[in-house]
Each structure stands twice: as C-alpha cells, then as structure tokens.
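New to this. Explain the following:
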Amino acid sequence: MNEIKIDTDFIKLDSFLKWCGAASLGSEAKFYIQNGDVKVNGEVSTQRGKKLRFGDVVEIDGESYKII
C-alpha cells in the first residue's frame, strides 16, 4: 500500500488521483471516477468531489493509496 501525505484537512477525490499520480489529467481522473473504477474505503465512489480525510484508502487499477 502506498502512503500519500496531504497537508490539508481533506482533499477531493479527483484532485487526489492527480496528486498520487494515478491520473495525469483532471479529465482522466473524471473518467476513472465516472466509470466506477475507483473505490474509497472498499466502496465504489462516483463522486468527483468526495472529501477524503486522513486514514481513507483509495483503490484504483490494483493499487491502494492511504492518506496520511
């Protein structure tokens, strides 16, 4: 599992996908989210603006990213 540090109280899901390198563009992040390819804490999330906080785990393409 990859641990990704953020410096704010929360980060939106689409921004997080760019921050951790899972998506190179915002449009790519939007595509993954709308396609149902992204899980947050084990559940598929289709909300681009979903607020992620410390301890949340995001899964995409067989990779896991934990927010620390």
Observations:
- The longest helix spans residues 26-34.
- The chain has one domain: 2-67.
- The chain has a mean pLDDT of 95.
